[in-house]
Specification:
The complex is a heterodimer of chains A (541) and B (337). Chain A is mainly alpha-helical and 541 residues long. Chain A has 18 helices and no strands. In chain A, helix 6 runs antiparallel to helix 7, helix 7 runs antiparallel to helix 9 and helix 16 packs antiparallel against helix 18. The radius of gyration of chain A is 23 Å and the shape is globular. Chain B has 337 residues and is of the alpha+beta class. Helices cover 34% and strands 21% of the residues of chain B. In chain B, strands 3-2-1-7-10 form a 5-stranded mixed sheet. Chain B has a 5-stranded mixed sheet with strand order 6-12-11-8-9. In chain B, a hairpin with a 2-residue loop joins strand 4 and strand 5. In chain B, helix 1 packs across helix 3 and helix 3 packs antiparallel against helix 4. The termini of chain B are close together. The N terminus and C terminus of chain B are likely disordered. The chains are: A mainly alpha (541), B alpha+beta (337). At the A-B interface, helix 4, helix 11, helix 12, helix 13 and helix 14 of A face helix 3, helix 4, strand 9 and strand 11 of B.
Chain lengths: 541, 337
């Protein structure tokens, strides 16, 4: 057991936490799930800032009709790299960071099952993103064919596509290793008495997400490898002139891509399912239904991929099948939303910052879900497809969905991580500021799409000018939010009030049975699990 | 080239073709929608009340048969084909389903947030199950989804039938323009084909830091910046037109919102689709699939003319294309005003 060994070797340090001393030992060679979790979260924060800056370029150019700032080709590089950075560098690592920090704490395990691999899966990421981002400075620039990398367009650029694909491979390896680690940890390292159906929902959603990752990341790796050989080794997987099929790429890509969407939202469901019961002081409604709904969504995510391709020229049978399958996702998703509302019902609610973000999540994610249901209706999708309506939809799901839950989780568990409270006043300010500007940013994009504005265009007819201006104002407001969050957390770290072990009055779960800040090593001996320590009570009652 | 001639002659009934769309116009467009919405929603009294209410709102927030998007436009337009009306109907049905569910869910949340606050002395209940409620909110959504899927299925089946077309147009996407070929018309090949690309005024204005005002790009009173071409696709009204769509390089997507669909143009693959335009007018759209640096600059303009005018136009094109007729052709060659 590497962690135990490390603990013994560190015995001679004065630090009672047995933290490794020195920057390299502490952070670069770390095998500690908490430190690796922190690294993931810091990395994700940096990536959110970089991706956010790119969206700033996009929205600045789109603020007025006419091209004022950038050439269209650079604009396309921005949309492409913004998406890759936000998805693979922001949302996914943030959830892996949260999983690293919280899964061992929530199941009573001393660390992740495979701590050295944990180190590796994190430290690949900075290199992957260095490779990806350095393409911006290559001759010919970064990939500009969209994050979906559809051939033949994605093969038209210079050598940057090879760098991007190499970076995607590294991210994929990192994700697969992270997923293996999470599965191994959850299935093998639970404290005695922590049965599967007693686990916190965050652990459940991550377990299911990890299986999705293992299933689809290799599919993405296959797809991009075929792109690579088409480009550099004269194969014709996707080149019709050589007997290939460009539409086949889209099928393979979205077979990865749709589960990927749920990879980014299922852990968010888990976070919200932890936070709402805490601040409603009432057990989560329908715990088992939540688990089964998560599993159903995961299963359905494998059979809906071609709803991203309704206008690609599919036969009628295909359109109907994928329409029905996609609509079915609304049922388990609806169950989740109804259960969150029922959890609040007859609770005793308070509205600390994490709860505000969780409620914001439920409302705005549901709006993203509604537009998702609309997009599933094929005759209407013939109009919505590839317009700003789609852009609005997936930003509601990913920003006010996934990102809101990440922010909620950080505020929720921050006192446990650092032992310090943040300023409620400024946390709430951060929330309300974001609510105003995120809706200014993305809600008008529904109107733009319905009025006929295609996505991924750098310039537009003057009729679209007004809502684009509103959207850009929202974007500039949103660009302030990482600064607020950084300052709030920095201030908390330096000057915050001391947090209690319980932190939140209504909090349940093993993570609240260890001191705040959580010591470097926790649960070196398996905890005794009492019914009141379970996050959601005993579901068999 | 001038597209400003709105063919008033030969049009049937009150037209909603307006240079700038006027909200609330075009009662005729609403009859069809009203019938469909009524059929699609429940025939109960509440169903009628709901559809009446949604229609009133829909009329207020959308504009009929627009040729250009309107400033501050909020909603999809019903277009000028049955397909576009289907899209619009499907859109409005599911939109209102979402709005109603949203009001119920968010209303319950808001009630809970105001009523069950600790600061008001609320004491948390400890129940965490209610099988009856869980069954209800699993089954009812399924029924609602079936009700939404049913009309959508019918619409799709109709849209899939591209047979019995009077005119076949081949559309080929290029970086960054379109080629239109009139393959056959009323059973005869026509030999007419041409490229269609962004008009030069938009093209000059759209250059980085051109200093030119996009608002100044106009055809008549229409602000056509980036939505105008050098040579539009001229089509007959009242005739079923089949499109065969492909690409010469990367993937494009051919989309005119007023016609109600878009279809990808894939290299070496031929997709087909059809339309039947009901009103003469000029309908504008854009490439909808990212196709490289000038993806935002390959608009589509369809000029729909009554059959007689279209026949005249096509004959003139054929005459212009035929070398023998080249000497005699110029005078009548331009039917557009």
């Amino acid at each position: 057991m590497a962690t135990h060994a490390a603990g013994h070797h560190a015995d001679h340090h004065d630090d009672h936490d047995h933290k490794p001393q020195g920057f390299w030992n502490r952070w670069v060679f770390t095998t500690n799930h908490k430190d690796i979790g922190t690294l993931y979260l810091v990395f994700a924060f940096i990536m959110f800032c970089i991706g956010g800056a790119m969206s700033g370029v996009i929205r600045a150019e789109l603020m007025k009709p006419g091209l004022q700032l950038v050439e269209p080709y650079f604009f396309n590089q921005m949309t492409t790299v913004h998406a890759l950075v936000m998805i693979f560098g922001g949302v996914m690592p943030a959830f892996v960071g949260l999983g690293n920090w919280m899964i061992p704490l929530q199941i009573g395990a001393p660390d992740m099952a495979l701590p050295r691999m944990n180190n590796w899966s994190f430290w690949i990421m900075p290199f992957a993103f260095t490779v990806l981002l350095c393409t911006l400075f290559l001759p010919g620039g970064a990939p500009a064919g969209g994050w979906t990398l559809y051939p033949p367009l994605s093969l038209q650029g210079g050598s940057s596509v090879a760098f991007a694909i190499f970076a995607i491979h590294m991210m994929g390896i990192s994700s697969i290793m992270g997923a293996i680690n999470i599965i191994a940890t959850i299935l093998n390292m639970r404290a005695p008495g922590m049965d599967l159906l007693k686990m916190p929902l965050f652990v459940w959603t991550w377990l299911i997400t990890a299986f999705l990752l293992i299933a689809v990341m290799p599919v993405l790796a296959g797809a991009v490898t075929m792109l690579l050989t088409d480009k550099f080794f004269h194969t014709s997987f996707f080149d019709a002139a050589g007997g290939g099929d460009p539409v086949m790429f889209q099928h393979i890509f979205w077979f990865f891509g749709h589960p990927e969407v749920y990879i980014m939202i299922l852990p968010a469901f888990g976070v919200v399912s932890e936070i709402i019961p805490t601040f409603a002081r009432k057990p989560l409604f329908g715990y088992q239904a939540m688990v089964y709904a998560t599993a159903s969504i995961a299963f359905l995510s494998f059979i809906v991929w071609a709803h991203h391709m309704f206008v690609v020229g599919m036969p009628l049978g295909g359109e109907l099948f994928f329409m029905y399958a996609t609509m079915m996702i609304a049922v388990p998703t609806g169950v989740k939303v109804f259960n969150w509302v029922s959890t609040m019902w007859k609770g005793s609610m308070t509205f600390e910052t994490p709860m505000l973000w969780a409620i914001g999540f439920v409302i705005l994610f549901t709006i993203g879900g509604f537009s998702g249901l609309m997009l599933a209706i094929v005759p209407a999708d013939f109009q919505y497809h590839d317009t700003y309506f789609v852009v609005a939809h997936f930003h509601y799901v990913l920003v006010t969905g996934a990102l809101f839950s990440i922010i909620a989780a950080v505020y929720y568990w921050w006192p446990k991580w650092t032992g310090k409270m943040y300023s409620e006043k400024w946390g709430k300010f951060h929330f309300w500021w974001t609510i105003v500007f995120v809706n200014l940013l993305f809600f008008p994009q529904h109107f733009l799409g319905l009025a006929g504005m295609p996505r991924r265009i750098p310039d537009y007819n003057v009729a679209f000018a007004d809502w684009n201006m509103v959207s850009s104002i929202g974007a500039f407001g949103m660009l302030c939010t990482p600064v607020f969050m950084f300052l709030i957390l920095w201030h908390s770290k330096k000057h915050g009030a001391t947090a209690t072990q319980q932190v939140w009055e209504g909090a349940h779960g093993l993570e609240w049975t260890v001191p705040s800040p959580a010591p470097h090593h926790t649960f070196t001996e398996p905890p005794l699990i009492r019914a009141q320590d379970l996050a959601h009570g005993d579901p068999t009652h | 080239m001038a597209f400003g001639a709105w063919p008033d002659a030969g049009s049937t009934g009150p037209q909603t073709v307006a240079s700038r769309p006027v909200c609330g116009g075009g009662p005729n467009d609403w009859d069809g929608f009203r019938v469909m919405a009524m059929k699609s929603l429940a025939t109960t009294r509440t169903g009628r009340a709901v559809s009446a209410a949604l229609l009133t709102l829909a009329v207020n927030i959308s504009c009929a048969a627009s040729t250009l998007p309107a400033r501050w436009q909020l909603n999809m337009t019903p277009g000028v084909t049955q397909t576009a009306r289907n899209a619009y109907t499907a859109h409005m049905i599911v939109l209102w389903v979402c709005v109603i569910i949203g009001i119920i869910v968010f209303g319950a949340m808001a009630y809970a947030m105001f009523k069950f606050r600790k600061s008001k002395g609320a004491v948390a209940a400890q129940w965490s199950h209610n099988t009856k409620a869980e069954v209800i909110w699993t089954v009812i959504p399924i029924l609602i989804l079936v009700a939404c899927a049913w009309p959508a299925t019918g619409m799709l089946i109709k849209q899939a039938d591209t047979s019995n077309a009077t005119l076949t147009i081949k559309v080929t996407g290029y970086q960054w323009k379109w080629r239109y070929e009139y393959l056959d018309y009323e059973g005869k090949p026509t030999g007419v084909g041409f490229m269609s690309k962004l008009d030069s005024e938009s093209d000059k204005t759209r250059q980085l830091k051109s200093g030119l005002d996009p608002h100044a790009v106009k055809v008549g009173n229409d602000a056509t910046y980036l939505l105008n071409v050098d040579k539009p696709l001229v089509l007959p009204t009242g005739a079923k037109i089949r499109f065969v769509i492909t690409s010469d390089d990367v993937i494009h997507s051919w989309w005119v919102p007023a016609l109600g669909w878009k279809v990808d143009a894939n290299p070496n693959i031929i997709n087909d689709a059809w339309t039947l335009i009901e009103q003469p007018g000029t309908y504008r759209g854009q490439c909808a699939e990212l196709c490289g640096q000038d993806h935002g600059f390959m608009p589509i303009v369809v000029e729909a003319k009554p059959k007689a005018e279209f026949d005249q136009w096509l004959a003139a094109q054929q005459a212009a294309a035929a070398p023998a007729a080249a000497t005699a052709a110029p005078a009548p060659a331009a039917p557009q005003g």
